[in-house]
Every structure is written in C-alpha cells, then in structure tokens.
Amino acid sequence: MCSGIVIKIYLMSEKIRFDSLPLSEGIQAAVKEMGFEYASPIQSEAIPFLLEGRDVIGQAQTGTGKTAAFGIPIIEHIVPFEKFVQAIILCPTRELAVQVSEEMKKLSKFTKGVWVTTVYGGDSIDRQIKSLKAGANIVVGTPGRVIDLIERRALKLNQASMVILDEADEMLDMGFREDIESILEEIPNERQTVLFSATMSKPILALTNRYLTNPKLVKVVKNEITNVNIEQLYFDVKGRAKMEVTTRLIDFYALKLVLIFCNQKKRVDEVVEELALRGYAAEGLHGDLRQSQRTQVMNRFRSGNVSFLVATDVAARGLDVENLDAVINYDIPLDEEYYVHRIGRTGRAGKFGKAFTLVVGSERNRLREIMNYTKVKIDKGVIPTFSDVVGIKKGMFIERVASTIAEGDLDLFADALSNLQHAGFSVDQIVSALVKLSMGVQKNEFGDENLEGELERQSRKYGRDERGGGGFRDRNDRGGDRDGRRGAGRFDRDSRGGGDRGGRFERGNDRDRSSAPRGPRMDREGKPYRSDENMVRMFVNIGFDEKISPANIVGAFAGESGIPGNVLGQIQIENKHTYVDVPKEYANVVLEKMAGAQIKGKRVLVEIAKPA
Predict the structure, then answer these.
(1) Domain assignment present for 475
(2) Domain span at residue 33?
(3) Closest alpha carbon to 441 in 401, 360, 358, 384
(4) Same domain flag for 115 and 80
C-alpha cells in the first residue's frame, strides 16, 4: 500500500497522566478503575497517533502496556450498538488472545454498546459462531480460527475499519504469514492498520511496506523494557542440583506464587513431578495440554490453589498474573528476548519482584549475551545452604506457634505433651520433633554439599540439555490452531528474504523417487549435513495434490507425536507422497503416534520409506 515506510521513532521523556489525554469519560473511568494513573511510554506515544487514524508500528515487548496502547483507540473509534465487526485484533496464541480480550472488556466497561468476542482454536467453533451472530464489533482471535470462520462465512470483515497485528513477529515465526495476508485481503483498503512487534525483522518490514500507509514507528528502547522493580540474580549451579537449588530459593525467600520456565515440554513435566514429590503444589503448562486443561491450570494458579506454575515460553505467552512473587529460569532461555518476556511477568504495577536464573557451566556465555542485550548487570546470587533454609523455617514456625498460643483454646491438646513424656520422651525431644514435622524439611544428599557449579559439565542426568547448547526450541508449543500451522515459519524462505538457500524443504516434481534420487541434505552454506546417518526416512501417502505444505507436515508430526518440530530433517514433498527425515531416537514414537493420524482432514499412512 505504500512504496516506502515513513518511520520516525518517538521516545518517552516524561510521564503523561491519562487524564491529560483526549479520552472519553467511559475510557477515563475504566482506566481509573484499573488503577492506572500515568500512561506507559508506548501508550503515551501511540495513543495520539491512533486516535488520529494513523497507521502505527509499535515496537514493544510484553509488559509495556501495549494492549491498552491500541485497545483504547479501538474503543474510541467504535460506533456503539452497531453489531457488525468494526475492528479485529490478531494474536499468535490462544492465551494472548484471551488476555487481550479480557483487557478490552475492562477498558470498554463504561462504554455502552461495545461488544468484544474472542475466537481461537481448541474451543467450540459453534459457540464462537453463535457469539458472532449475536453481534460483536470487536473480534480478538488467532489467525487460524479467524480463517476458519471466514471460510464458513460466519465472520465478515467487509465493514471493518481497523486491524491490529499483535506480536506480529511471533505470528510470522509460527508460519501465519499467508493467513495474515488472506485476512487483510478481506478488509477494505480504507482502513487503519496497526502492527505491534518486539523486533523489526525483514519479514516484518516487508509486511508493513505492503499493507501499512505511511506508518509511524513508536518504540520502547531496551533499557526501558527491563523493569527496575525486579531484583535479578543468577546462580551458578551443578546441573544435577537444579531442583534442590530451586526449592531452597522458594523456601529461603518465602515465595508464594512463582512462575518457573523450562525450554522443553519434557522438562516441564519432570520439574512438576519433582516439585510434587517434595511437597510443592505445582502444575505444568505446555503445548500438549488441551485448551480446557490450560484454562483450568491458569484458573488454579491465579486463584492461588496452585503456587508454582512450570511452563515453556510459548505456552506462557500472554500469561498475566497479579502479585507474582518471582520468576525462576530453571533453564536459561534460548533467546535474549525470551529473558525479557519471562522476567516481565513479575514486578508489575509498581510492585517488586524477583527473577532468578540457574546457570550451568558454559551457559555463562548465554547469560553474558542476555546482559549485553538488556544493558543490565545481573549479579551472582549466593545459594542458600540447608542450614539457611532450616533457620528461615524455624523463624516462621516460632511465629505460628506464638500466634496459636495467643488465640487460646488449647485445653483439648494439653494432655498430648504429658502422654509423650509418659512414653519416655523429653520435652526437648518432643518440641524438636514437632518442629521438624511442621517444617517438612528433610536433609537429603545435597544437605552438606557445595552446589556451586564448575566450568565443566556436571550433569549426568540430563546430558547435553544441561550445557546450554542441546535444548530445542519448542516449535510445537507455538499455540497454532489449524493442522500443520505450528512451526511453519522456518520453511517460509521467501517471506524471510532468504530465497531458495538449500534449506530443509526440497520441492518435489512429477517423478517418483526412483527417477529423481535425493542427494545429501545441505546446510545454508551448501555443505552436506553430517547428521543424515542418524535420520530415518519416512514415507507419507499425501503430497502436493492435496495442497500439503511443509508446515502441515511439521504440525502433524509434532502435534501427534509430541516431538519438537525443529528436530525434523529434510521434507521432500512430491505430487502424491512426501518423504520426511526423522531422528532415529524418535522413529518408533512417530510410527506409533501417527498411526491413523490426519493431515488437512485426510487420514494418512506413515511408514519407513523403502530403500531406493
């Protein structure tokens, strides 16, 4: 829509009060009820442009107030009581869509005639259709479900005048580019287009160049992103002692509500199990959970029935919990931006929070990269000793005992002491035993051990994951809601400006495998991958004739088998079938889980390919 992007960066120099902005009484009342007095930097700069009807690019991370930055202008532009869709907000994941929708409902609480509907995969599409028919002038949704509803003619965007792409970089990484473009084509050209992204990558700039008109870029700089209300510490630990250090930190700092981040779904399950065995109320959140399960887990965490939530990065995108005491990076994040996203969950709304990162061996290099990125020095913390933890718990026990004595009504229990004395125990023994029972502290093999890490690898339990280079980014945990949409981004060579660089996707033709033998898989430098001997080639009886894409294959294999999407090797699609390279260690799992699976609604056969 524009030949070149007109960009000017606006940075906040002083705080602006909401009541000084030209906002309606309804918005002012909602903002006041939500407890906001001053606008955040992104809100102060974006809102005036959006109220003018300008196209805007907002470069901001989670926790900077970007939802209100675009949400307030949307509500101000809505013609109330009109039941057609006037604005649509696209989000990469279900969790973020729900969070944005809840925020929009709070902002529109005192503005009559504004109706917000949320649509996403994993929930009843019939219920969402019914909600749309009842009337909605603001729709918040994930791209896949929005496309589904458009194809069913349940969602009409021909009268929409405003579209928001929230966390656009994440949507492109997840392979939603085609969906986004299809949705934008459904909306009239005379519209206001707003894009929020944490990064300004080439695909993002290509998208803005095509669909935004003279956009203004408002940006929150990095040193404004990292919250000054967060105490950031790292702990140099032995890999096998991660759980022990985690529980000591929880006990020593008396943490009541904690979000623990892991890089893999498997690790999430392991950590939840170990915490439960130690008596901590914990639950996990990752891509293998159905939407109803995710909702239940989040409700229990928000209500305080579960104190410790263990999650992967993408499963936790959009997660917003009040009064979060701390974030613990059980695994150091694979990306610097993920660190900012993680710690931004705590220390919100002027409150103080803690961010603890467990570092093993050579992961110090990644920690150094994070500090360079955030421009913040993360100090090394001292691991609490077993005696430190016992001392803290003793103090808490004494306080509880003193409080119980002050309450009175102890007569019914007075004979317990004499009974124990008659059994031959001294008062000191009885009191010490009661203290031990109350505190629930048991000395284990780590009790007197120095848990500080060393430069060389210490862990035998987790192997290469502990040294920081072996973890896989959890592609299947991207939250996509249509078959095969998860993990598609890495095949979208054109959208990334890379062209055909000999990547993992090799387009097939009419010839079968015998007439067109496959050569060795090449990396981006044109060199053969050395891991081919560790791969098993699998045959799938579906191909281009059924309009299959690499994204469909990755999504199906990862979604059904539970393996990380990015461990798959070369995907060679031909007219009637497809070949997929799978690591040997996952071959049996894939064969078992893909039995009877469907890809784009068609039941498929997956088997080991016959030798050429």
Answers:
(1) no
(2) 9-224
(3) 384
(4) yes
In a domain, 473, yes or no: no
* pTM for the full predicted model: 0.50
Greatest Cα pair distance in the chain: 92
* Domain's final residue, options 199, 224, 249: 224
The CA angle 318-258-282, to the nearest 5 degrees, is 100
Which range, 177-186, 392-401, 468-477, has the best average confidence (pLDDT)?
Answer: 177-186
Residues 87 and 182 in one domain: yes
Q: How far apart are CA 90 and CA 143, in angstroms?
A: 6
Torsion of CA 511, 512, 518, 522, to 10 degrees: 60
For residue 236, name the pLDDT band (cuts at 50, 70, 90): very high
Q: What is the pLDDT at residue 384?
A: 87
* Residue whose pair of structure tokens reads 């461990």 in the numeric block: 567
Indicate the DSSP class of residue 320.
Answer: -
595 with 487, same domain: the answer is yes
Residue 250: which CATH number? 3.40.50.300
pLDDT tens for residues 200-211? 778 888 888 999
- Across the chain, mean pLDDT equals 78
- DSSP of 235-292: EEB-GGGHHHHHHHHHHHTT-SSEEEE-SSHHHHHHHHHHHHHTT--EEEE-TTS-HH
Residue closest to 482 by CA, chosen among 97, 146, 204 = 146
- For the packed helices 94-107 and 291-303, what is the interaxial angle rounded to 10 degrees? 50
Hey, which of 60-69, 459-468, 584-593 has the most confident mean pLDDT? 584-593
Q: What is the reported pLDDT for 226?
A: 52
Give how far Cα 526 sits from Cα of 276, 502, 567, Å: 48, 7, 19
State whether 424 and 350 are in the same domain: no
Lowest mean pLDDT among 199-203, 230-234, 238-242: 199-203
What whole-number distance in Å separates Cα of residue 261 and Cα of residue 324? 14
- Whole-angstrom Cα Rg for the chain: 27
